[in-house]
Amino acid sequence: MARRRAEMMEENRVKLIAAARKAFAEKGYSAASMDELTAEAGLTRGALYHNFGDKRGLLAAVIHQIDSEMASHAQEIGERAGGDWQGLLAEGAAYIEMALNPEVQRIVLLDGPAVLGDPSQWPSQSGCLQATERTVERLIKQGIIKPVDAEAAARLLNGAALNAALWIAASDNPQDVLPKAVEAFHSLATGLLVRHA
Question: According to the UniProt entry, where is the signal peptide (predicted)?
Fold first, then answer.
């Protein structure tokens, strides 16, 4: 009985997140109606409150899901780039480029910060930061980048990619901003390289 209840609760969470993701992408957080959203999921407001506390909690869950997908996508691109250094650059550029995705723009980069505050403080960003820090540590051990504090470097690299994505999302001409942002990100990251005579 308890197992079935847990399964039903998880099914409800999945339905609510899917309905909210669609509503937030199409209408934006403010205009998305909780009644329409729960009706779309075939559930009640009570299910929303029980699972997420409120609409803000539901937005946080949606952002966590999208942010996790973004991190996985960027990591896949980084792994195909050939080596830790090229992977680091490719992951950062991939994250920045995802700012062109309308769903990412609206939910994660525009509504998210407006409702949930500083994205660098979101739990989903913590995993991203840890992965970048591990990469930086490997690059330092390999003698590819300067022996700087790995956490500081990871925070600055992630912050640069995040701020570039925020810039693109808020821009009137995202396609024009993208190459400038990626080029600047690469230039900043290259400053960490050890200079060989």
Answer: none
